[in-house]
Amino acid sequence: MSTILIIFCVLAAVTVLTAFLTIFSRNPIHSALYLVICFFSIAGHYLLLNSQFLAVVHIIVYSGAIMILFLFTIMLMNLNKENEVHKPRITRLGAIVSFCLICLVLLTVFINSKPIVGEYISTGDDYQSIKVLGKVLLNEYMVPFEFASILLLVAMIGTVLLSKKEKTEK
Amino acid sequence: MDSSIIIEKSVIILVVFAITMVMAMYSTLAERKVAAWLQDRIGPNRAGKGGLLQPLADGLKLFSKEEFEPNTPNRFLFFVGPAIAMSTALMTSAVIPWGDRFHLFGRDIILQATDIDVALLYVIGVMSVGVYGIMIGGWASNNKFSLMGAVRAASQMISYEVAMGLSIIALLMMTGTLSLREISAQQPGMHWNVFYQPLSFFIFLICAFAETNRTPFDLAECETELIGGYHTEYSSMKMGFYLFAEYANMFISSTILAVLFFGGYNYPGMSSAVENWGVNIANVIGIAVLFAKICGFIFLYMWVRWTIPRFRYDQLMHLGWRILIPLSIINIIITGIVILRAEIAIYLGF
Q: Nearest chain A Cα to B165, which residue?
């Protein structure tokens, strides 16, 4: 086995294990921390694919910003109670049914899916360099890039608007 | 990979690690000495000549103290907190160019552990991960004061990370690269970035103070309100790790300030030194110059500590979100206009 394969197997095991632990751990803070480890191992997968930029940005955005805000909320709202209240039977039944349906859909998708790119051809461009990445992003994929940024802006404005208290009429 | 590269890099990593540790150790002494000097006192002078062995004595004391543990259900996380703080403080130094290339044993040696393409983003990434050490430690202490201190520190750090990232963008538009090695190579002689991007430098400096939790932004350990902040429950060497991580962070952020804005290892007359005395001697001077710049910034940290009083929490957030972020966005726009001035002139028909 080559070194890359060994690293991949270890990373994949860590990813899957921490992803399951995220769901199964009772304490919300523990499950948030497992999710952080999961994000780090995914960044490791990006590094294995030789995309340093994506790996670093993934760590900055997901582990450095989003998960910290998650932890904030959990810590400040004091949600770290271990004893979970039992949900009513109808809720549990609904969860099981929807899980089975999702499994069915995913299974059919995976069975029927065909790879779009049959054979990978090297273009000769070094896509781990930021210069190439920036040029591609702002020339070829200019419109989707701008749309994504507008989407983020709209989400941000929406959040500010929602969190603002409405002024009471005098 | 041939074995000589592995040996070379291992030696560089070990030396950088040792230097970071020693600098952090002696920063504690320097802090007390500078404080004493600014307040017209003598400062620590009992251990060794002029107090030179004081850091060793402090370390010995911390190691030999009894270790208390709070009654917490998360003993493992309580232990992990200081470990994360310390390791993230030491990880950043991997991408910093400590000098230009040496020519020894018939081959070129680059004084840098690794030269990655996204070095500056790596630094920001490690910095943002460092918040976890504080948050986990403060939460696992099972103490309301620690938790409030941790939340304060973390919200302060992520707020100022935004302004810091935006201030760097203006610099990146000018340099066109994220590699710290290329950025320092672009500033030969006195062509330091601070003269071209002064606003960016000031915003970065303020954010660096906030990121390292130093006065005037040390609200996380605001004694009058929060006892000791996130490390209230820590004792012995675990608390030592938190304090030590702060000094290591101070050293690293001073280094990044020196490399990004003050030319790194460059000094006026470096090219003539290379011609007259050879590459190696010119480089030794360069390393000395870099460390002089770093020490200057560390002194600035200590000077500010005894000059500016601590901000109130709402003032801190106001400064970060309402002043520094708009300022850095204006700086980005101005930089963009200056870079594209030729195209804009043609477009407007001059």
A: A60
> How many other CB atoms are there within 10 angstroms of residue B109's CB atom?
19
**Nearest CB to A52; choose among B77, B116, B136:** B116
Q: Cβ–Cβ contacts within 10 Å for residue A6, how many?
A: 10
Of all residues in chain A, the one with the smallest CA distance to B132 is: A68
DSSP for B290-331 reads HHHHHHHHHHHHHHHHTTSPPPPHHHHHHIIIIIIHHHHHHH
Work out the percent of chain A whose per-residue pLDDT is above 90.
36
In tens, the pLDDT along A50-74 reads 888 888 889 988 988 888 888 888 8
Which two three-digit tokens encode residue A70?
């998650």
Burial class of residue B213 (count of CB atoms within 10 Å of its CB; 0-12, 13-18, 19+): buried
Collect contacts of A151-158 with beta carbons under 8 A, ≥24 apart: none
Q: Which of B110, B108, B113, B90 is nearest to B99 (CA)?
A: B110
B329: its two tokens: 């966005």
Structural domain of B107: 1-348
Name the domain count of chain B: 1
Q: Which CATH number fits domain A1-109: 1.20.120.1200, 3.40.640.10, 3.40.50.1820, 3.50.50.60?
A: 1.20.120.1200
**B125 inside 8 A of chain A by CB:** yes
Q: Do A64 and B125 touch (CB under 8 A)?
A: yes
Q: Domain limits of chain A?
A: 1-109, 126-164
Which of B 159-178 lie inside 8 A of A, CB atoms? 161, 176-178
Torsion angle defined by CA atoms of residues B313, B314, B318 and B320, in that order, rounded to the nearest 10 degrees:
20
SS3 state of residue A124: coil
Mean pLDDT for each 10-residue chunk of chain B (350 residues)? 80 89 89 89 83 86 83 83 89 85 75 82 88 87 83 85 90 86 84 87 91 80 70 82 88 91 84 80 87 92 87 86 91 91 82
Alpha helices in chain B (DSSP H): 3-38, 54-64, 75-91, 119-140, 144-175, 180-185, 193-196, 198-211, 223-226, 236-261, 270-277, 279-305, 313-318, 325-339, 341-348
pTM over 0.90: no
